[in-house]
Specification:
17 strands; 450 residues; Rossmann fold; Ubiquitin-like (UB roll); alpha/beta; 3 domains
Length: 450
């Protein structure tokens, strides 16, 4: 049966156009030097915290399992370096939460023998669908667009659901970030093989790759490569934030709308990031677990902003040092992009699977405007891509009226920050909405337990 797609260049509701500042779009990916020690968090994914399988004093190799998935919605953690486990202790991670991490003092760089470290591109897919899913699980693959949802869970479609469309997110709509852009340019063939692997795992015939039109070189490069990959199409999309959000990307490429409270699979779609597709390629074709990722390190005052291939667990301070060192006028350091990222408490936090960028803002860019009373202009309503009323959700959350916030669909918020960005009153709407959303989700979990 022929599958028909209703494509457009952008999503119909809401969205904004912040300045892009893609300072590193022409800077090739460069491996970050291996640090003297790493701190590898054992929770780098949505779901249950992984359980350590090593102890203080153990010698580990690069690529070795050091923490095992603790449940179906969980993810394995592997060592990104070789050396001695110095301790297992708590840290403050990039999100500001306290969690356990495995500390390793680096000794050389001895890799697990089964990992193929050659530059050869392997196109033939040998594994069966169930083996692909198991390999993703073994390798600790998670969504690298920021959500860090375990990829093997997405691939294990429930029996009462059916996927007929794979959506690949190459949009990278966050200002400043270019790690996905560079990955598409430098590892395009591997990404497309990774997509073909995902197609085989899900038994689908079509995959659609969405890329914003501000990356014409990536669009043309992948279009040319895709001629050799049946069923994979490349789509140039209008530049509009948050074009890369799951529900907005599905709407743009297929015309399907994910209902409130539902998931992409409920409209027969599964969404993966381009970096995830590359990680799947490395796991399945090279037997390489997820131990490193590309991170954009940027800022207007940085001497040498760039895109770095970073070993998981490397301190953020080492990334900043590689980019020329901390500028004197730095006012804030953000993990992720400026729209959805979070400010870091210090530069000692480790790089993790979900870290796509480090952005250094000048002090002059780091202060919020003075907050005044809501002037009822409705700009936040116009900008919201989820058709919500952010001013109302923020007020309800601020006043701890969480039951009403649930009724107003606070859990549908994708935390894109468009409301705060557009607010002329300087109201930190997203801060309050995040509080309301997390509280309501906790209430829902407690109700389900009962």
């Amino acid at each position: 049966m022929m599958i028909r797609y209703k494509t457009s260049n952008t999503f119909p509701k809401g969205g904004i156009h912040p300045p892009e500042y893609k300072l590193t779009q022409n800077v090739p990916i460069k491996p970050l030097p291996i640090p003297k020690s790493v701190m590898i968090p054992i929770s780098q994914h949505i779901g249950a915290v992984a359980a350590p399988v090593v102890a203080k004093g153990d010698y580990v190799k690069t690529g070795q399992l050091i923490a095992s998935a603790n449940g179906f919605v969980s993810s394995n953690i592997h060592s990104s370096v070789s050396g001695i486990v110095s301790k297992i202790d708590t840290i403050i991670d990039a999100s500001g939460y306290r969690q356990n991490a495995i500390f390793i003092d680096v000794q050389g760089d001895e890799w697990v023998d089964s990992i193929d470290r050659s530059a050869d591109v392997i196109s033939k897919i040998e594994l069966a669908p169930e083996q692909i899913i198991e390999k993703c699980k073994e390798s600790g693959i998670v969504g690298l667009g920021g959500a860090t949802f375990p990829s093997h869970v997405k691939l294990a479609v429930p029996k009462d659901k059916k996927c007929n469309t794979i959506i690949i997110n190459g949009v990278e709509c966050e200002p400043y970030l270019t790690s996905d852009h560079r990955l598409m340019l430098e590892k395009g063939e591997e990404i497309l093989i990774g997509i073909a692997i995902l197609m085989k795992a899900l038994d689908v015939e079509k995959a659609m790759v969405g890329i914003e039109s501000n990356k014409p070189d990536a669009v043309e490069h992948l279009k040319e490569l895709a001629k050799r990959f049946p069923g994979i199409s490349i789509h140039s999309l209008t530049v509009k934030y948050p074009q890369g959000a799951e529900k907005q990307l599905i709407k743009t490429l297929t015309g399907r709308e994910v209902p409130s409270g539902k998931l992409p699979i409920d409209v027969n779609a599964v969404v993966h990031n381009v970096a995830t597709a590359y990680a799947v390629y490395e796991a399945v074709q090279k037997n390489k677990p997820l131990i490193e990722r590309v991170v954009t390190v940027t800022g207007k005052s940085l001497p040498a902003p760039g895109n770095y291939l970073v070993r998981i667990g490397s301190p953020v301070s080492s990334l900043i040092e590689a980019a020329g060192g901390l500028p004197d006028d730095t006012g804030k350091i953000v993990s992720g992009g400026p729209m959805m990222g979070k400010a870091l408490q210090n530069t000692g936090v480790p790089a993790s699977k979900g870290m796509s960028g480090i952005v250094l803002f000048r002090a002059s860019e780091s202060t919020r405007v003075e907050k005044i009373a809501c002037i009822r202009c409705a700009k936040c309503v116009t900008a919201c891509p989820m058709n919500l009323e952010p001013h109302l959700l923020a007020t309800l959350s601020m006043k701890a009226m969480f039951e009403r916030a649930e009724d107003e669909k606070v859990t549908d918020c994708i935390e894109c920050g468009s409301c705060s960005y557009t607010c002329p009153a300087g109201r930190p709407s997203l801060d309050y909405i995040r509080l309301g959303k997390s509280t309501v989700m906790k209430m829902i979990r407690e109700r389900n337990i009962k």
